[in-house]
Design a protein that fits this description.
This protein is mainly alpha-helical and about 210 residues long. It has two domains: about 1-115, no CATH class; about 115-209, no CATH class. It has helices at about 1-60, 75-85, 90-145, 150-160, 165-170, 170-180, 185-190, 195-209. It is about 80% helix and about 0% strand. Helix 2 (about 75-85) runs antiparallel to helix 3 (about 90-145). It starts with a helix and ends with a helix.
């Protein structure tokens, strides 16, 4: 009859709602379990990564020598593959991967030192270019006040100035730039030799003028 049919429909809807509820709860449970599993894996990877860094630091390697995620290239990918694993770093595993890690660290350190060397050299040349521009400006401003009655030859001599290439051709200036040092160290040396550099400038002006 109609009442029995309605009861059957209500029961069917109720059962469907219950199944959907149970499905949602199961999905939430599985999602939570997956997140916990992933977190556990990340914790294991982090523990192995920190233990590896501790061991290589104990061997005398600097933190800057250790390849990091901020750097790209095959070297970093190889390091990542060896270190970023969920397996604990046992003595057996350490003995197996240590030679590979040392080789990567040697390459990483060589690349870092080469990069730092180039950066220091660039800083020295940038400073020299800046101070060269200032010196040139001061010389030209000073000599622009030359008396109007000066001979044309004398006035021309006042307004000429060696190029940066000429300055770098002088052994003293070239030595200051090529010698590996920080920009601050070079500045200190430059100041000590300023009288000699000024003499070179005036001598060059006299020669070409």
């Amino acid at each position: 009859d109609k009442r029995a049919l309605d009861d059957w429909r209500k029961e069917k809807v109720k059962n469907a709602d219950q199944r959907r509820k149970e499905s949602r709860e199961l999905a939430m449970f599985l999602n939570r379990m997956e997140k916990e599993r992933l977190k556990e894996l990340e914790d294991l990877k982090k523990a192995r990564r920190l233990e590896t860094e501790h061991r290589v630091r104990a061997l005398g390697w600097a933190r800057e020598d250790i390849p990091s995620s901020s750097r790209s290239g095959a070297l970093c990918r190889t390091w990542y593959d060896l270190v970023n694993q969920s397996k604990p770093l046992t003595e057996r595993i350490w003995a197996k991967i240590q030679p590979k890690l040392i080789a990567l660290l040697e390459t990483s350190r060589a690349e870092r030192l080469e990069k730092e060397l180039k950066q220091r050299k660039l800083s020295r040349y940038q400073w020299l270019l800046g101070i060269f521009t200032q010196i040139k400006h001061k010389f030209l401003v000073y000599h622009s006040r030359a008396p109007a009655l000066l001979a044309t030859h004398d006035i021309t001599q006042h307004f000429i100035f060696p190029s940066l290439a000429h300055m770098l051709a002088w052994l003293l200036v070239k030595h200051l730039c090529e010698t590996d040092s920080t920009a601050d160290e070079m500045i200190s040396k430059f100041k000590k030799h300023w009288d000699e550099i000024k003499f070179f400038i005036n001598k060059w002006k006299t020669t070409v003028g």
